Amino acid sequence: MRIEVRQTRPYPDQKPGTSGLRKKTRVFLENPTYLENFVQAIFDCLPDKAGKTLVLGGDGRYHNRKALQTIIKMALANGFGTLLVGQGGLLSTPAASHLIRKYHALGGIILSASHNPGGPDGDFGIKYNIDNGGPAPEKYTEAFYRRSQEISEYRIAVMDDIDLDTLGEHQLDGATLRIIDPVSDYAELMAQLFDFDRMRQALTSGKVSICFDAMHAVTGPYAKRILEGQLGAPQGSVINAVPLEDFGGGHPDPNLTYARELVEKMYGPDAPTLGAASDGDGDRNMILGRGFFVTPSDSLALLAANAHRAPGYRAGLRGVARSMPTSRAVDRVADALGIPCYETPTGWKFFGNLLDAGKITLCGEESFGTGSDHVREKDGLWAVLFWLNIVVASGQEVATLVKDHWRRFGRNYYTRHDYEAIPSDTGHAIMDDLRRKLPELPGQRFGSFTARAADDFSYTDPVDGSVTTGQGIRILLEPEARLIFRLSGTGTEGATFRIYMERYEPDPTRLDLDTQETLAELIELAETLSQVKQRTGRDGPTVIT
Ligand code: G16
């Protein structure tokens, strides 16, 4: 193995977003050394890497294998002692997080653009996770970016490509490269958290049934092994189970629009008890009952309220956390349980310190993410197994569980409207204008609401005291409602403007209303305040969730 030091020049656009560096695949394909520069920037910021372990894998999308070969060669040239690589180049994001923790790795690189489509015209991404298994916090991502702007060379081993498909160990000039089964360690962890015996009984007896849509993304092999293998769900319970480079031409985003096949099944005559889907890299989840959709915010609240039903959480929750735009449904559960509820900026990286310090057990986001202290990422299949455990232990339908929950706690009606791929300047101008309006809002009356407070959300991490500002415009209203505006940090084209609207309804006779109708006044208010339609020339949002 010969190590070469090759010259390179910085690319100006290597600033990581909400979750790593996400770009059009073409950016990686057409700019020689684009990947190499960013990987070397990461490695340059890790001073103690010599002899350490690095976990490597991705969601299997187009360019995954090729990029992995490059990263393997660069990791060897940069002195790592052990590389753990998922077979076939596959590792779901939560499984990678678990491996980093279990094998005391220095960190891991995960190749994914999450729920964004793949292929040469789709998206590609790279993210680094630190030794706690979680996404690199901002002090790291900022350092990676700074380094990428001054980079002049990268190190790479000159060697043949590694066979990624055969399990086993390679000794390479003092370093060890292991191709590992991507599923087994993760499956073992799930069996410790949930009541697999009872779940198996319910699934094999036919009392409970499940349909899991892997969307031709990374969770296929995980769901096959766990749901159909270990838990005995009938063959075919996992659909779209084979990971494909282009996700079968689909959009691996588990929502009501893109998980079409699953949604049709769940709203059809032979719907199984539980329907679920996960995204490209396996960290997001969508939960459905028979003819019933559970919003991610409600899902988090329900998991918190029912956690005692799963063995891994029977001892109780230390606390919970949600991102700022996530609905406040979980806050009410935390109140009832007498535990703290933290409000963080959008981005899983902000939960890491709270989890490490033992301040929280569960956390989640409106963007179809839920997780716990078992790893340091959101975890799609974990959430599905948690729901399955709750359904089995309670003997109730998903819809009944949610409606009972609303009767007990009241309902937080919630919706998010996205204006995707608008010009960046327009997106920033809308946000700037909203920011300017903030001081005059408190006390103003808007129809049946009065603004109680308004700010640009800033977060002081209770563990390390770090401060993160400019995390979204927040308008708090009376009677209890919120309007939130922010720009997405994960888009790869122009800007995506997100509006989040929420209203609390305690009246038990008004819990079954249509969400968009119930929130109509708030939707109009949000459009008036931001003038988003006039300024973008759009008739309405691109996506409503
Ligand atoms: C990432 C982050 C999440 C965040 C989501 C949406 O998820 O890990 O914490 O909620 O993006 O972010 P934004 O609103 O900035 O687009 P994923 O699943 O895309 O990696």
From TrEMBL:
Keywords from the named record: Carbohydrate metabolism, Glucose metabolism, Isomerase, Magnesium, Metal-binding, Phosphoprotein
One Gene Ontology term from the biological process aspect of the record: glucose metabolic process
Region (Disordered): 1-22
Pfam families, A to Z: PGM1_C_vert_fung (PF24947), PGM_PMM_I (PF02878), PGM_PMM_II (PF02879), PGM_PMM_III (PF02880)
UniProt keyword Metal-binding present: yes
Residues in Alpha-D-phosphohexomutase alpha/beta/alpha domain copies: 14-154, 185-288, 298-409
Gene3D superfamilies from the UniProt entry: Alpha-D-Glucose-1,6-Bisphosphate, subunit A, domain 3, Alpha-D-phosphohexomutase, C-terminal domain
Reactions performed catalytically: alpha-D-glucose 1-phosphate = alpha-D-glucose 6-phosphate
PROSITE patterns assigned: PGM_PMM
Annotated Gene Ontology cellular component terms: cytosol
Enzyme class: isomerase
Source domain of life: Bacteria
Cofactor: Mg(2+)
Record-listed E.C. numbers: 5.4.2.2
GO terms, molecular function: magnesium ion binding; phosphoglucomutase activity
Record-stated family: Belongs to the phosphohexose mutase family.
Family annotation (NCBIfam families): PRK07564.1-1 (NF005737)
Protein name from the UniProt record: phosphoglucomutase (alpha-D-glucose-1,6-bisphosphate-dependent)
UniProt source species: Methylomarinovum caldicuralii
